[in-house]
Amino acid sequence: MQGIASRDGGPHGGSRPAAEMNFSYQQPTLGDVQGYNPCRAARRGPSMGKTIPSFLLIPLAVIGLAALAAAPGGGDSAAHAAPGLQPTPFQTPTPGPDGRIIYVVQEGDSPWAIAAIAGIPLEQLYALNGMQPGDFINPGDRLVLGIGGPVIPTAPPGSAPTPTSIPASPTPIFGTGVICVLLFADTNGNARLDAGEPPLAGGQVSVITLTGALAAEYTTEVLLNEDGEPDSYCFPDLENGDYNVSVGVPPESNPTTSMNYPVHLDPGATKYVEFGAQPSGGGGGGDSTTSTLLGIIGVAMLLAGGGLGYYAARSRRPDRLSFR
Predict the structure, then answer these.
(1) Among 41, 248, 301, 323, which is least packed, fewest CB within 10 Å?
(2) Residues contacting residue 125 through CB under 8 Å, at least 6 positions apart
(3) Is the dihedral of CA 58, 61, 63, 65 positive or negative?
(4) The whole model's pTM is what?
(5) Quick one: CA torsion of 298, 304, 307, 311, rounded to 10 degrees?
(6) Strand 260-265 vs strand 233-239: parallel, antiparallel, or unpaired?
């Protein structure tokens, strides 16, 4: 605060030469301080006792601001004075071969910040990584952000795609085959066709497909070849595939082999199937007269035994006493 100069020329300060002016310091009063107007003081010239015109203030202010902005670093001083918080750099992870999207924790990361940047709920981040609220994470930890599809490698730019050859599927083979069937009289019951065992007539042969359709059927007859041996009956022109061949034995015969046989028929193949059955007489048909005679002998022995029993019972009864 400058002192207030007073002139000796009287209370109103008459004009005196500067050499004769006597300056003395006086303490400013409260009224002087309250009446001080910095804007009015600013309009006073440095050596002139006159004020600056108002219309020059605005151009001077604009020129001052332009000069301040043109100064090196002047316009950016406020922007660089207090830099704001920068978010953690986040690169969108790529799904791995197993489809999982993995994020490696960086310094200063937090579960909330990672979930917010990744665009997933915080609860989902906890659930995917088996975490609980309040768990800590450390730099270098690998967190699962989600499950995506596996990465499909792409060819580098400019490279031509390599054509992939598709192996040709095998062409189905279609054709026909033959199934030959023989029903023989298994006289010895060993389930094998032995020499001297003839064909057995009266059996019913059926050839059935896997779908249950009847492909062929035949009633057996006594067929012999040129050598007088049993000959099979053949079903020609059967389509290749799987069949079930079955035989029903004639009356008064008992089967000695399985009466159902599965057959896989290839194109151009011939399959032979043999079935055996034994006549009910067994062993080539015994003499019926002998069997009848044995039956009569058995009945006679039973009657003789009964008569002997009755005679023995009669002979053991005590004699009656007479009192005449």
Answers:
(1) 323
(2) 111, 114, 115, 118, 131, 143, 145
(3) negative
(4) 0.38
(5) -140
(6) unpaired
